[in-house]
Amino acid sequence: MAGKKNRSKGKKKGPAQNLADLPSQMVYPHLHGRVVEALLPDVLDPEPWFVHEPGTRENRKETFIVGRFSCPNQSCRKAGWTTGKVCIHITSYANSGYRAIVWSQRCKLCDTMGILALDEQSYIDRVAFRLKKWAGLVVPAVPYVKRGTPPHLSDFCEACIAGFCERGVLSLSTSMNALRLG
Ligand SMILES: [Zn+2]
Ligand SMILES: [Zn+2]
């Protein structure tokens, strides 16, 4: 999968072995019900549904949500980091299908993939806003949460590493191949 580089150089000591299996992208289909609630009072017809097996996409939007990562490497002294720049790709499919992929980030001290505690409300707000936009509704923009979080570290952001986010340089078709693997 794109975004999964061979990082054998960064061999961890101790019990870090199975940390290599932590995902670079996550999906949160269990938040779908709350996304639909957040559409109210608007009711989209057909009602949006979360796509598990992506087919041909119709639209895609890259944006950011808020979250806190923790470093699961017990031999690392970094507890975690909060960021307003967790990259999310929202994609629409036929018949109101959609899918949202959230990209992980790595610990800047030890390069282990972080574990994300998502700010669920920011996810719900972003996705609901985008679904309404795509449905042609006029909706006020959801303001970005401005927090004093440190600058975005592209070298440790899986979306940037895959060529999206602040390093969005790949062509769309190449990008979509990476997305399909979510
Ligand atoms: Zn760490
Ligand atoms: Zn990034």
Report on this structure.
This protein is α+β, with helices and mostly antiparallel strands. The protein has one domain (19-180). Helix content is 20%, strand content 24%. The chain has four helices and six strands; from the N terminus they run E-H-E-E-E-E-E-H-H-H. It has helices at 32-39, 120-134, 158-161, 172-180; strands at 25-26, 49-50, 57-70, 80-93, 97-103, 115-118. Strands 1, 2, 3, 4, 5 and 6 form a six-stranded mixed β-sheet that branches. Helix 1 (32-39) packs across helix 2 (120-134). Mean pLDDT is 84; it is low at 1-16 and 170-182.
Key features of this structure:
6 strands, 6-stranded mixed β-sheet, 182 residues, binds zinc ion, 24% strand, disordered N terminus, single chain, 4 helices, disordered C terminus, alpha+beta
The number of E-state strands comes to 6
Residue windows where pLDDT falls under 50 for at least 5 positions: 1-16, 170-182
The helix tally amounts to: 4
Give the helix proportion (percent range). Answer: 10-25%
The computed structural class is alpha+beta
**SSE string, helix = H, strand = E?**
EHEEEEEHHH
Tell the overall outline. elongated
Total number of domains: 1
Question: In whole angstroms, how far apart are the ends?
Answer: 9 Å
